[in-house]
Amino acid sequence: MAHSIGILGTGVVAQTLGTRLLGLRYEVTLGTRDVATTLANTKTNQYGGPPFSEWHRRNPHATLGTFRDAASAGSLLLLCTNGGGTLDALTQAGPENFTGKTVVDITNPLDFSKGMPPFLVPQFTNTWSLGEEVQQRVPRANVVKTLNIVNCEIMVHPEKTGGEPTMFVAGNDSRAKEEAIQLLREFGWKDVLDIGDITGARGMEMVLPIWLRTWGALNNGHFGFKIVR
Amino acid sequence: MAHSIGILGTGVVAQTLGTRLLGLRYEVTLGTRDVATTLANTKTNQYGGPPFSEWHRRNPHATLGTFRDAASAGSLLLLCTNGGGTLDALTQAGPENFTGKTVVDITNPLDFSKGMPPFLVPQFTNTWSLGEEVQQRVPRANVVKTLNIVNCEIMVHPEKTGGEPTMFVAGNDSRAKEEAIQLLREFGWKDVLDIGDITGARGMEMVLPIWLRTWGALNNGHFGFKIVR
After folding, report:
1. Cβ separation of B195 and A207 shorter than 8 Å?
2. Which in A24, A77, A154, B145 has the greatest CB count within 10 A?
3. pTM flag (> 0.95)
4. What sign has the CA pseudo-torsion B10, B11, B15, B18?
């Protein structure tokens, strides 16, 4: 298992995963577009959480760098940018820095441009997915789609649902999926279902609309999907 | 609660619901495009089940008629055609026969024209849904989207999953949703979640791709989705 993990992104998902990984004794490097801008930001995030600099003060063992720094530093990589920034982050990180690595893709191709609720970007829906696009952009990496169907607190503490939800994994490489599953187990996931190759990312990303409606009905994001069988 | 139920469709979903409703002592009328053709069909269905005529011999209390007959006969209606035939069935049934009725829409806008697995029809995906289109075609009816996210055996016997899966309902009219929920409870659903108006049908129909992948992974359709919270 990797000991150094690179996280692309510095938002609430990246922070939540970063905190958990530091707790599990991983070396963590977070990557951003512009380090100075990220550190200078004093605004709370869209969920009311603290700005990155405050998170970093509480988690001084994490390293902050560029997307390229994070992709180079990690032997396993997590994509935690918002969906709209994912492909640009790959370009900035340099696809050569992904070669041979397991890349856990947590992103969702959500379009907030027309307000709430967001839609899925049509280009990455139904007959294609952001997960497949990512795999195509870093063809020498082994992309595993997972975790995108739950709130970030639940990603790293599935027991906070009060039960044992199911997590899906989809990817073309069995060893990369095993590596991702090992990480899921460290987070506490007991029921993991391998749904095959990376085209399974379509179904996983298309879960978002029912996730959003369920969140609205429960007025709470601490839930997960269990495959009862 | 309605005592007479009209089912649009005569395929395996319609038959399975019909058998269950007859067992619950409802009067059941199934509607088809052409009665003589449906009765003359001797082929097994796509799932290896018997042709309609054989089902009808085993269930002689069910009435077979046209789409119009079924829509007229039922005080509650179930849409159980395949997705591609749904809108044409509404036209043939006559939208005036839906006025004031609860219409339970179980259909999925699946496109099998490019082989397996099917895609969702882009026109009815993401920013629109077949459920919304149905509501628009029968504006004086109260459409409730539900049951489309499980195998038809599970629709009427959720306990066959071995647990207590969640069923969603979406629709614009609260009383119609209550009527649909009462029917779900008679089928055995204990965990029903109201996700709001008919636009929720988008999320419910977009569950199909992950349903198909899960079915492939388990090699078994007897499963359901539980919202663990």
Report:
1. no
2. B145
3. yes
4. negative
